[in-house]
Amino acid sequence: MGIKIYEVMAAILYHLIVFPLSLLPLFILYKISDLLFVLFYYIIPYRKKVVQSNLKNSFPNASPKQLRKIEKDFYRHFCKLLVEGIKNLSMSQKELQQRLTVSNPELMESLLIKGKSVILISGHYGNWEWLITAQSTLFKHKAFGIGMPLTSNFWNAKLNERRRRYGMTVLDAKNYKETLKNSPQSFAVLTLGDQAPPTSEKAYWTNFLNQDTPVLFGTEFMANEFDAAVVYFSIQPIKPGFYTMTLHLVTEEPRQHPFGFITEKHTEMLEKDIQKAPAFWLWSHKRWKRKQADDLIALRNAQQEAFDKRFRS
């Protein structure tokens, strides 16, 4: 009964408040984001201890003043992301393409000509939500996105419906393989590699932002499973409401590289983006909540053995 009431309330919230808000011009929504900044930073701090801990551990040599500046800049960006996410619900294809542009689309075009499918990899940096909706309009590859379902059935269905409206196909992370395997054309799969892995044992451990960090291995697995090229993308804000996406080739031939190469490479690229402009990463995410495995060497050896047996035998 409680779940049904929650779903009804979610539907009412969406239809009476959230979607009507999305019809407002962005310059008005940005005024709302200014109010949200005051609310989430000063009045009802949103995950402030998580943000401060993440920043302090990631930038151990930064002064308290420098950390406070990054912290405030992050919350301003985060509040803009919230209203941009709302705007995304009703934004036209033309406006999306005007607000999110690709600086070097020829990289994807060259891979398509070669018949290569692509794993597009980055993190929660810049504005990834607009890319989810716009991907199929930016590139000629068949667009797929992989993610875990939300706990609310209503929000999960509604957000995926909005994300799919220009051609994106959203796949469940638990059963995506068959769809990709049967794709009649070259595809591009959008993945975000900075989510916390489900367990320490299933993670690839590396040093990231001065900390031992578990990284999802899905990108490297998919690249080898489907012999797909790996392209890292960086989404940088140009001015309020406008972003540019730059593509960086990690590899065209994933099966020619040793275990861990792809994961290390795209993680390193994300780290450089964050170090260059840290405010645009999602610092409120509990990135380091997993405890490192007791015997990391044994875990790495077991992972590599399983990987080589599957892809290098």
Explain this structure to me?
There is one protein chain. The protein has helices spanning 2-22, 26-43, 48-58, 64-88, 93-99, 106-113, 128-138, 153-163, 177-181, 218-226, 261-276, 296-311, and strands at residues 100-102, 118-122, 142-147, 169-172, 187-192, 204-208, 211-215, 229-239, 242-251. It has 313 residues and is α/β, with parallel strands linked by helices. The chain has one domain (2-311). A hairpin with a 2-residue loop joins β8 and β9. The longest helix is centred in the N-terminal third of the chain and has 25 residues, at 64-88. The N and C termini lie far apart (53 Å). The mean pLDDT is 95.
- The number of strands is 9
In N-to-C order, the SSE pattern is HHHHHEHEHEHEHEEEHEEHH
Compute the number of helices: 12
Secondary structure: helix percent: 40-55%
Mean pLDDT: 95
Question: Judging from the principal axes of the Cα atoms, what is the shape?
Answer: globular
Segments where pLDDT lies below 50 for 5+ residues?
none
Domain module tally:
1
What is the C-alpha radius of gyration, as a whole number of Å?
20 Å
Q: Measure the end-to-end span.
A: 53 Å
Structural class: alpha/beta
Beta content comes to: 15-25%
Helices and strands, with pairings:
Elements lengths: L1 H21 L3 H18 L4 H11 L5 H25 L4 H7 E3 L3 H8 L4 E5 L5 H11 L3 E6 L5 H11 L5 E4 L4 H5 L5 E6 L11 E5 L2 E5 L2 H9 L2 E11 L2 E10 L9 H16 L19 H16 L2
Parallel strand pairs: 1-9, 2-5, 2-8, 3-4, 3-5
Antiparallel strand pairs: 6-7, 8-9
